[in-house]
Amino acid sequence: MFDQVLAPEELLRRASELVPVLRGRADQTEELRRIPDESVRDLLASELHLIGVPRRFGGLDVDYGLMLEVAALLGSGCASTSWCYSLWAAHSWLVGYWPLEAQQDVFGESPDVLLSSSLNPGRSTLEKTDGGFRLSGQWEFSSGSNAASWVMVGANLPEGLVWLLLPRSDYKVVDTWFVSGLRGTGSNDIVIKDAFVPHHRGLNRDRAGGEDQNGWVVHQQGRYRLPALVLLGWDLVAPMIGIAQGMIDEYTSQLTGTSGPGRTADLDGVQLRLSQSSAELDAARALMRSDVSETLEMAQTGEAFSTLVRARLRRDKAFIAQLCLSSVNRLFEFSGGHAIFNSGAAQRFHRDIQAAVRRDGFIMEIGGLQYGRVALGLDPDGRI
């Protein structure tokens, strides 16, 4: 066991220095439909991914919320790179819930391991066998899969959804990612054919961090003293905040210096929309920080997460996503004809936020609905 010591200020400085670099590669990232190799190397060299890795395997002894701040920063330069960074770091955190033997399988040789995922069951079959499981199927939306050497996928058993860890030799990445937004994430399909998965590489999703306290027992880090599903999801919210910030930066840079009689920056509508969009972003960022801080404080003290609290946190993830969507859309609608040119970043931020909020948990009618039910004294009828 060894601890890495890097101050949060230093990690944020490294992230800030990467923003213009990633912005300069944003077009290339879209053309490749994956994260460029040089960007992967830069992220690993920055050690920002180590925020998610458990301490005993060389991870950094910093707050999990710092990873979200980093993702938001990176997202203002390149949404696809931020999306993959955030997921890679979150997956490293998730591995800490598995039995220690599985964690050693993943991080035993190096903490510089990237994992992609597709945590829903997809089109899969899972059967128990001596010493483990036999797994086959095809899963969609595995972001960052090209650079990953491990994958975590979901499959159903009678006792519930199981997450399973597999090395690259046990699966294939199928190039299916031909999309309009978040093009550079390489969110391809994963195909597995009759792979044997040792028992220690399986994890019951709904018990992880609740009935199953292995992560807390092994690591004694607050981020493992809570149900995994409570903290999961912020890793996708943070890049949306970065996208909204990137759109504001682009809008401001394009219009600054255009003032004068009859010129763009003097228009009341231009000024009002910038005020509204920046306020929405500030509110989104503040709510994320407040919720994540509250979550980690509750975990550190061992306080239980009530059904109402869990429903509220899920609601807030969806609400923040919708704030970011509104912020970007409002500015794009008032950006004029030049906003649609591929040579500018506005059209990319606009496409990227449309893609980011398409996950059902970020639609208020799904992600926010359960809070209303629970607040009215009804039992939830969906996942929280």
Q: What would you note in describing this structure?
A:
- The chain is α+β, with helices and mostly antiparallel strands and 384 residues long.
- It has three domains: 100 residues, Acyl-CoA dehydrogenase/oxidase, N-terminal domain (Butyryl-Coa Dehydrogenase, subunit A, domain 1, Orthogonal Bundle), CATH 1.10.540; 108 residues, Butyryl-CoA Dehydrogenase, subunit A, domain 2; 143 residues, Butyryl-CoA Dehydrogenase, subunit A, domain 3 (Up-down Bundle), CATH 1.20.140.10.
- It is 49% helix and 14% strand.
- The chain is built from 13 helices and eight strands.
- The strands form two sheets. Strands 1-4-5-8 form a four-stranded mixed sheet, with helices on one face. A four-stranded antiparallel sheet has the order 2-3-7-6, with no helix packed on it.
- The radius of gyration is 21 Å and the shape is globular.
- The two termini are 34 Å apart.
- The model has no long low-confidence stretch (mean pLDDT 95).
